[in-house]
Design a protein that fits this description.
Chain lengths: 344, 330
């Protein structure tokens, strides 16, 4: 058998959430697999650095850290094309980095500097890079679900073959815009992946308190669309499931509601005493560290050696310290620019 | 459409959309019952036959999603015109209007462009009571990032809507229900495409003694009041139609005031916190030297729009109340 034939013969299918899904991850080039790990580290380290800035009082507003959820953003974004769209949330640094954002410009924005993505006008909750397809983080829970749906309508009307990944949390699914948008996307069969990162808490309110259904993905029945619940800490599963539905979306068989189970290691924002959860629970989830898990996977499958992983970690540490330096050294915006950019 | 090009406000609005849609395929309409039904007030009648259901896009009753979808599609290259059936229903979509469409550009440091129009029917006088009769322009005009347009006649409606569609910002275009089909206000409207710059007011009646500032249907009422008070008391009113609330043309108000020395602001919305409060405050600050007396505000009473015609007429300023207000200024 030739190599190619062998690969074809080995095409593997997985049963996930009642769907038969091709294991496209295993066919990925090892360079891409490595890049995915690097992105996860970038997110983790960016957030750890941000946390340091918070502690030192250098972040003017608040920040919502993505630590612990890295597999969701990276797995989903890497399953899509470079020119596909995403919309993000108040906990958006991870989505933004996964989508290829410049770390320098992101960090500068967090510090409110002129050189930041939004010239200091948006801060942590509003980083966007429309040209690269990142239609923005959003300070309103569920706020971007309508925007993602609209981007999906553009893809449909222009027939441009693009798709949209709409990230939101468990809390957003109880907002009205979730209902209106998913219903609209369903009747128009829009190419939108509604990607719910269920990290168990909407601020302090547990999903147990806020829902009377077992799985958020069960809401697919209300809209007549596909949907399933997956392990959001398993980047390979995220990648495979999103790839599968990306293809369906491109064939006009969207949208889909994917619920990715994950956990934020830190509090909701910088002012959270975390009285609503136990240390044991946090510890339990930290043991399910998505980065460790994926590293192990890459070691086992001999994509990377331990040394190579260490090199990646060091490289990322350099990237982050470079971004921090850039941000710190950048000037604050000129106060006279305050009324600029209100109108086109 | 009448042969001599004397058309209604509604026909002028429809014509602006039709003509713009013929030249730009990125323009589409999205809203409730706008296809076969032709919209609750009939503005889009016949459009689905020409443009099809993709571009005359009926939606479920989901105002928040309508505006959210319009915003997202505008951000990615389309030029949506969203129809919100009654302006009262913009409150259902308020997050999408105030927090998303209006703010995205600024919050993203000028990187997003949102060329969208939200067309909606405002105003009372139809017996539809509190939830279908409001004048909520102050609510939207207050929000930086939005432009707010309120045409008073067919000619302006067409030209202003063309500008609103061409504008790269979210524009709230508030139409008045009592102007739509009223033959009393038909007007010659050129067939060719033309635009009227947003942010420029228009003098609808020249006068020497007093400046009336109004918008939308109140311009029409003010014009009648001005004619009557001229013949009854010899007071010669100048009527300034703002056309656009935001951006606001203060220049036209001040220039008129310099001539007349007196300012009456007329609006349909409840007086408390009404948009004309902004006009009065700016005038007091920037045009104090031109004022020969206090600024008069003639506006809606401080209650929801009631149902009974007797009560509704009391709530919304009519011609008599405008005249009474003006008389008090001399």
């Amino acid at each position: 058998m030739t190599g190619i034939k062998q690969k074809k013969a080995r095409k593997k299918y997985l049963e996930i959430g009642g769907y038969t899904i091709e294991d496209r991850f295993s066919g990925l080039d090892s360079g891409v697999k490595t890049e995915m790990l690097k992105k996860m580290y970038q997110i983790r380290n960016f957030e750890l650095q941000t946390e340091q800035f918070i502690i030192r009082g250098m972040i003017h507003g608040t920040c919502h850290l993505y630590i612990g959820e890295e597999a969701s953003a990276v797995g989903a974004v890497y399953a899509s094309n470079r020119d596909d769209y995403i919309t993000s949330t108040h906990r958006g640094h991870g989505h933004c980095i996964a989508k290829g954002a410049d770390l320098d410009l992101m960090m500068a924005e967090l510090l409110g500097k002129e050189t930041g993505y939004c010239k200091g006008k948006g801060g942590s909750m509003h980083i966007a890079d429309v040209e690269s397809g990142n239609l923005g983080a959003n300070g309103i829970v569920g706020g971007s679900i309508g925007i993602a749906t609209g981007a999906g309508l553009t893809c449909r009307m222009k027939n441009n073959g693009k798709t949209v990944i709409c990230f939101f949390g468990d809390g957003a699914t109880n907002r009205g815009i979730f209902h209106g948008s998913l219903n609209m996307a369903s009747i128009w069969r829009l190419p939108v992946i509604y990607f719910c990162e269920n990290n168990i808490y909407g601020m302090s309110t547990s999903v147990k308190e806020a829902f009377n259904i077992k799985k958020i993905s069960d809401r697919k029945h209300a809209y007549g669309i596909d949907g399933l619940t997956i392990d959001g800490n398993n980047i390979i599963e995220v990648f495979n499931v999103v790839s599968h539905f990306q293809q369906k979306c491109r064939q006009g068989e969207g949208p889909v509601l994917i619920e990715a189970l994950t956990y934020r290691w830190r509090g909701h924002s910088k002012s959270d005493a975390q009285v609503y959860r136990t240390k044991e629970e946090v510890k339990e989830w930290m043991e399910k560290d998505p980065i460790k898990r994926y590293s192990r996977e890459l070691l086992d499958s001999k994509v990377l050696t331990r040394k190579e992983i260490e090199d990646i970690e060091n490289e990322v540490a350099d990237d982050i310290s470079k971004a921090s330096d850039f941000a710190r050294k950048s000037p604050f915006p000129d106060p006279m620019t305050v009324e600029e950019d209100v109108y086109a | 459409m009448k042969d001599n090009r004397e058309i209604t406000y509604l026909e002028a609005i429809r014509e602006a959309m039709q003509q713009m849609m013929r030249v730009d395929e990125n323009i589409f309409l999205i809203g409730e019952d706008i296809a076969e039904y032709g919209g609750a007030f009939g503005v889009t009648v016949g459009m689905v036959e020409e443009f099809g259901k993709e571009r005359i896009r009926n939606t479920p009753i989901s105002e928040a999603a309508i505006i959210g979808v319009a915003t997202g599609s505008a951000m990615t290259g389309m030029r949506p015109i969203a129809e919100i059936m009654f302006s009262d229903f913009i409150t259902i979509a308020m997050d999408q209007i105030a927090n998303q469409a209006a703010k995205a550009r600024y919050m993203f440091g000028g990187k997003a462009t949102i060329p969208m129009v939200v067309r909606t029917a405002g105003g009372g006088g139809t017996g539809a009571a509190g939830q279908h009769s409001q004048s909520l322009e102050a609510l939207v005009a207050h929000i930086p990032g939005l432009k707010v347009v309120m045409p008073s006649c067919p000619y302006d409606a067409k030209g202003l809507l063309v500008s609103a569609i061409n504008d790269d910002n979210p524009v709230i275009f508030i139409e008045h229900k009592l102007l739509y089909k009223n033959n009393k206000y038909i007007q010659y409207v050129p067939e060719e495409l033309y635009d009227i710059t947003l942010g420029k007011g228009d003098i609808k009646r020249k006068g020497a003694d007093l400046t009336i500032v109004a918008t939308s249907f109140m311009v029409q009422k003010s014009l009648i009041a001005a004619e009557e008070i001229k013949s009854e008391k010899g007071i010669d009113c100048e009527v300034v139609d703002l056309r656009t609330l935001r951006p606001l043309d203060m220049g036209i108000i001040l220039r008129s005031l310099e001539k007349t020395g007196r300012l009456a602001c007329v609006e349909e919305a409840p007086i408390f916190g009404g948009f004309m409060g902004e006009v009065a405050a700016r005038t007091a600050q920037e045009g104090f030297d031109f004022l020969d007396g206090p600024i008069m505000r003639i506006a809606g009473r401080n209650c929801p729009v009631p149902y009974s015609p007797v009560l509704e007429n009391e709530m919304i300023p009519g011609i008599e109340r405008i005249k009474a207000g003006i008389s008090k200024m001399f």
